[in-house]
Amino acid sequence: MLNAQMVEHLNQQINLEFYSSNLYLQMSAWCEDKGFEGAAAFMRKHAIEEMQHMNRLFNYVSETGALPILGTIDAPPHEFESLVEVFQATFEHECLVTRKINELAHFAFSNQDYSTFNFLQWYVAEQHEEETLFKSIIDKIKLVGDDGHALFFVDKDLAELAKKG
Ligand code: OFO
């Protein structure tokens, strides 16, 4: 049985994962609108992954006999200056998610809730992967700068990344 505060924190994380999904879906619309087809596909795929993150938490809360509660989800931004700004925003968002996961893990550990602590390890590893991935994409985009021709190839790379499992 989970402690009430732990349930509350996990429910907040469910909400944040929903927000992440909406954020990336909204970004995919921006990318599509600007002709970055690869980036749009990449963002769409990522939006689906975020829904999986949400579901994993939802199931865990439910399995432990607690009640997952869905709250209001903030509207994500929909205007961006450039492709690099979009990816910078994803990176900053992922850093925020990492902080939240760390806080959750800390709370679970200090309350001797080792089951939740163990459950959260998957998210700890996932956050490391996501931060690394987004950082590498930003580096690539920065490297080519405003060169439209080179950006076209970065976009093609993103299309390939979106196809990978
Ligand atoms: Fe992007 O990892 Fe969940 O939020």
Automatic annotation (TrEMBL):
Keywords: Cytoplasm, Iron, Iron storage, Metal-binding, Oxidoreductase. InterPro entries: Ferritin, Ferritin-like, Ferritin-like_diiron, Ferritin-like_SF, Ferritin_DPS_dom, Ferritin_prok. It is found in: Cytoplasm. Residues 1-145 form the Ferritin-like diiron domain. One of its GO terms (cellular component) is cytosol. The keyword Cell membrane does not apply. Its EC number is 1.16.3.2. The keyword Oxidoreductase applies. Its main location: cytoplasm. GO terms for biological process: intracellular iron ion homeostasis; iron ion transport. It holds the Pfam family Ferritin. SUPFAM superfamilies: Ferritin-like. It catalyses: 4 Fe(2+) + O2 + 6 H2O = 4 iron(III) oxide-hydroxide + 12 H(+). GO terms for molecular function: ferric iron binding; ferrous iron binding; ferroxidase activity; identical protein binding. Fe cation binds at E17, E50, H53, E94, Q127. NCBIfam families: PRK10304.1. Belongs to the ferritin family. Prokaryotic subfamily. Iron-storage protein. This is Ferritin. The gene is ftnA.
